[in-house]
Design brief:
Two copies of one chain form a homodimer.
Chain A: H1 2-16, H2 20-28, H3 32-40, H4 44-53, H5 56-62, H6 68-77, H7 80-89, H8 92-101, H9 104-110, H10 116-125, H11 133-136, E1 142-143, H12 150-160, E2 169-173, E3 179-184, H13 185-190, H14 197-200, E4 208-209, H15 214-223, E5 228-232, E6 238-243, H16 244-262, H17 277-304, H18 306-311, H19 319-342, H20 351-413, H21 418-445
Parallel strand pairs in A: 1-2, 4-5
Antiparallel strand pairs in A: 2-3, 5-6
């Protein structure tokens, strides 16, 4: 991406010289993402100065590529009239996203300034709860009637091109807006011009409901290699499409969310750099404090064995090591399983098979780690200590692995999100069992002096 | 996806009745991913029986959607001649992927059976190392000359449609195969038929080098909302494209890899369900054993303070709690940072700003958790104990957070992968500092009885 950095410096230099015309010319040919990126890096004042000089259609195209806070500041600098025109020029889904971010008073003054069609479209698109397919779809999809010829269909798509997100897929609907089939522009171009759309269209079309999680639309687009997926409402009427580029954004956001959840961080609203510190605090503190209280149980386990510890204070040497090992092995298993469930690689009925596999792997891991810790144990406390730590290691690693493997399935069955709770709960269980197993074995095998 | 399960049962029932013709008819209209999914679930024998009855073009389309082990077993059941025809019918990139998975002896007998063009294409596509753009691109992209009209270009694309991955983007090359620009099918359809391609084409085209990581191509496709990105070699000659659907697969595989790395699991070759147990063991054991030895330092820290522990055995109660808290806070920070670096949200020059933000957040988190642990400390060991654990908590959570935030930047600077080492190293540092800080504060503040 050095090219963008270069473009950036050029723009800066030209702005210093107040040569705005050359800047506009320079940016005209670039991809909207690049123009947005360049403006994002400018100070607020020059940013708006430049943005204001671009033509409206360019403004509408670059805005969605800018950082959210910058989008808002650009829009809020415009007159109400200019805001309304800009929103009208934007794609329906991007318009809805931007509108939802605007302060309420701006929303209220803006709404009456929009034409009826845009107003209704906006109200509908913003009515779907966040995280659903409805909230990421666009209403601007191309349609063609079933009875016309391929040549006529291409002609119709020509005229729809400007206002639709894509004309590469055209939807064939009945009078109730129910989906009869789809034709692709490629299919229309290849077909003989006189062939009828109804003879060309594919009728088995994968679709998704407005209320489904947006991740489901992304998954179907990925699994079926689609350009776009049609979205239907409760009455099976077509109400929008989700396109491949939005699916990629959803897929990336989902992965980020799952990665954060795996480290006990709640769902962040957007860019980490832009998130308010108070929000960040809120998203992080919950599990941290819960785990403080959960660890009282670990402490409780230790308190049970204070006499053993007094007698063999050397046991404490291995405590962090054994707890950490159980937790690490458990976290590995649960992470593997949570991700495999999220990507659809593993489903509920695979549980027993995965459990058997995990017994073998967990046993092998436990044995290897037991050998490592036995060597250290022998060096620190002789034969008896080696026995205690090795035996503990095998048990805690195997049980940590099995818990780690099973918990995501259980949470999934209970319709709880495996990504949120698996890692911390597995670590907690591994900690407590690790402590109890360790001291129980130690009390049994080590001779208490003076006893 | 209930529909696929239904299709599955229908197919099973029909196969029981040996009514293969109805099965083939039933599957004919379905998406290749669905057909592949249905065959994937059958027992090996019925799977091949059904696969063999499908026409060659369908076989070529569904194979890439099947599980890898099943793909191989289908292909290996075919005669050499049938194998060669099947590979010829497949898309270039999917053919290359399948070919690379075949056992060497099959590769050797197969290669001479392919036509020269396919053979050379295959050799070239399989020559790029895994993980590079070259290894995921396809060589089947559409081209048009610069000097022809839009109408002529559409006519040319009609004839290329069957053999190209997409005709929605056509590449305009000079005589050295250097990229002059691109035209979209939509642009050609909308344009006046007499307009020249060279006047219609976009000339500022984002491209990517064969040797770049495949994740870079996926990122550019996501950032620029592209249908496909052109791939160029060292001499700036165009050699292929990466399409949006392959980019989604790359993006998902990258996220999976990063999620696994975050839990100290190495890069798995594919499906978790399909991975051999020995591979799984190998990918998991490395960091687990490294961390056993790393934790000897934690034990060493404890050994330093054995007298303090003997005198105040109640201190051990809080040991897992404090270590875990430091580790949890550190893991949160490092996970947030690793992901933000991976998605491009945060870059190296943001480090100082992120550090300052983390000081505030870490301090707030530490204070909140200190209050929680002070209450438990007071209950267990009175005012002095509350002081010791609260003070320790603030220090370890803040330092854990700062280390967690900084380490990914440092690793990134050293050109090491932040995803691999951040989590375990942060946890290790948090463990050791947690122990040292805790017992140092305890030794200083608690009166040693009999001293």
């Amino acid at each position: 991406m050095t090219e963008v950095t270069e473009l950036q410096s050029e723009v800066r230099a030209l702005l210093e010289e107040e040569d705005i015309d050359t800047v506009v010319e320079l940016l005209n040919n670039r991809h909207p993402a690049e123009i947005g990126g360049v403006i994002d890096e400018l100070e607020a004042e020059s940013a708006f100065f430049l943005f204001d000089r671009l033509d409206r259609r360019t403004q509408a195209r670059i805005l969605p590529y800018m950082q959210e806070s910058h989008q808002l500041s650009m829009v809020q600098h415009l007159s109400r009239h200019a805001q309304a025109r800009l929103l009208t020029d934007m794609n329906a889904d991007e318009r809805a996203d931007l509108y939802q971010e605007l302060p309420e008073e701006v929303q209220e003054t803006l709404m009456p300034a929009l034409a009826k069609a845009e107003r209704e479209d906006l109200l509908r698109l913003t009515s779907y709860p966040e995280g659903t397919v409805g909230s990421v779809m666009t209403s601007e999809y191309a349609t063609v009637p079933a009875h016309i010829t391929a040549r006529q269909a291409i002609e119709r798509l020509r005229f729809q091109a400007l206002n639709k997100e894509t004309i590469y897929i055209a939807y064939v609907l009945d009078s109730d807006r129910r989906l009869l089939g789809i034709v692709t522009l490629s299919g229309l171009v290849v077909a003989s011009p006189q062939e009828a759309v109804e003879d060309l269209m594919q009728t088995e079309v994968v679709n998704v409901h407005t209320d489904a999680p947006s991740a489901e639309a992304a998954r179907l687009i990925a699994d079926y290699d689609l350009l776009a997926i049609p979205v239907v409402d409760d009455n099976e009427r077509m109400v929008g499409i989700v396109t491949h580029d939005d699916a990629m954004d959803v897929q990336e956001a989902e992965a980020t969310e799952d990665i954060h959840k795996g480290a006990t961080v709640g769902n962040l609203p957007g860019s980490l750099k832009e998130t308010a510190l108070t929000t960040l605090y809120q998203k992080r503190i919950l599990w941290l404090v819960l785990l403080v209280f959960a660890n009282v149980f670990s402490g409780g386990g230790i308190a049970l064995y204070e006499d053993t510890i007094q007698a063999h204070v050397g046991l404490v040497f291995f405590l962090p090591l054994l707890i950490a090992s159980a937790g690490n092995a458990g976290a590995q298993s649960s992470t593997l399983m949570v991700r495999a469930i999220a990507t659809g690689d593993v489903v509920s009925r695979d549980w027993l098979r995965m459990l058997f596999r995990e017994i073998s792997v967990g046993m092998l891991l436990g044995l290897t780690m037991a050998i490592a810790v036995a060597a250290i144990g022998f060096y620190r406390g002789g034969y008896e200590m080696a026995m205690v730590v090795a035996l503990t290691m095998i048990i805690v690693v195997l049980s940590g692995s099995l818990v780690g493997m099973s918990l995501p399935f259980v949470l999934n069955r209970l319709n709880l999100d495996p990504a949120t709770a698996s890692a911390p709960v597995v670590t907690f269980i591994a900690d407590v069992t690790g402590i109890l197993v360790y001291f129980a074995i130690a009390s049994a095998l080590l001779s208490v002096p003076g006893a």
